[in-house]
């Protein structure tokens, strides 16, 4: 008897999990962590709320899964040192404009300790590694990454969460022109003694 190999069919649970995560991302982005409910997310996913609890345990577990986010930072080792600030601000603006998940995470991080930890880990792990890769002094890498994070998160908060009119009105190119030199200094400037 020979066994035939058929391509594995996706399990129904995989489709259910994907539907829950899509609905959760949309709901958290639109309403924030506090106002989004398991019932509303389940209704959006067209499933029973007990299924959300089965797969994710509770609202915080669901949020943690839904807020998985990759900054998709470019390889900074291939970038001329004088262009790092511009490249990073362009990259961050593209990420913020193209994905509501990060906005939901930022909105929620201000009131929820779990979301704040997720945001810290996201920027600490991914951004610090990217800054370290282009050859900063290891003694200043974490500080440089922290300063870049403070600038980009501040822009995101004022532009996408609070929607401060002057920040929203700025075209991306204008924002790049204002912010790139600051990021450049954070990344490559020498700390004063």
Number of strands: 0
End-to-end Cα distance, whole Å, is 77 Å
Q: How large is the count of helical segments?
A: 10
Mean pLDDT: 87
Query: What proportion of the residues is helical, as a percent range?
Result: over 70%
Q: What kind of sheet is the major sheet?
A: none
Question: What is the rounded Rg?
Answer: 20 Å
How large a portion of the residues is in β-strands, by DSSP E?
Answer: under 5%
Low-confidence runs of at least 5 consecutive residues:
none
SSE run: HHHHHHHHHH
The geometry reads as elongated
The secondary-structure class comes to mainly alpha
Secondary-structure map:
Layout: H1 12-35, H2 38-45, H3 49-56, H4 59-66, H5 84-98, H6 100-109, H7 113-133, H8 141-161, H9 165-169, H10 172-188
Helix pairs in contact: 1-2, 1-4, 1-6, 2-3, 3-4, 5-10, 6-7, 7-8, 8-10
Report on the architecture of this protein.
The chain is mainly alpha-helical and 193 residues long. The chain is built from 10 helices and no strands. Helix 1 packs across helix 6 (100-109), helix 2 (38-45) packs across helix 3 and helix 6 packs across helix 7 (113-133). It is elongated. Keywords: DNA-binding. This is TetR family transcriptional regulator.
């Amino acid at each position: 008897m020979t066994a035939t190999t058929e391509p594995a069919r996706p399990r129904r649970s995989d489709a259910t999990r994907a539907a829950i995560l899509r609905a959760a991302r949309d709901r958290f982005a639109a309403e924030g962590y506090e106002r989004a409910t398991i019932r509303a997310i389940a209704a959006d996913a067209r499933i029973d709320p007990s299924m959300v609890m089965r797969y994710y345990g509770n609202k915080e577990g669901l949020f943690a899964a839904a807020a998985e986010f990759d900054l998709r930072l470019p390889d900074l080792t291939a970038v001329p040192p004088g262009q790092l600030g511009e490249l990073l601000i362009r990259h961050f603006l593209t990420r913020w404009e193209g994905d509501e998940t990060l906005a939901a995470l930022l909105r929620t991080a201000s009131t929820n300790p779990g979301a704040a930890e997720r945001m810290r880990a996201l920027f600490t792990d991914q951004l610090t590694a990217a800054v370290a890769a282009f050859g900063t002094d290891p003694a200043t890498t974490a500080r440089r990454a922290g300063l870049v994070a403070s600038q980009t998160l501040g822009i995101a908060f004022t532009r996408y969460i609070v929607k401060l009119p002057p920040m929203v009105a700025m075209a991306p190119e204008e924002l790049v022109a204002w912010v790139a030199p600051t990021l450049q200094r954070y990344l490559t400037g020498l700390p004063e003694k």
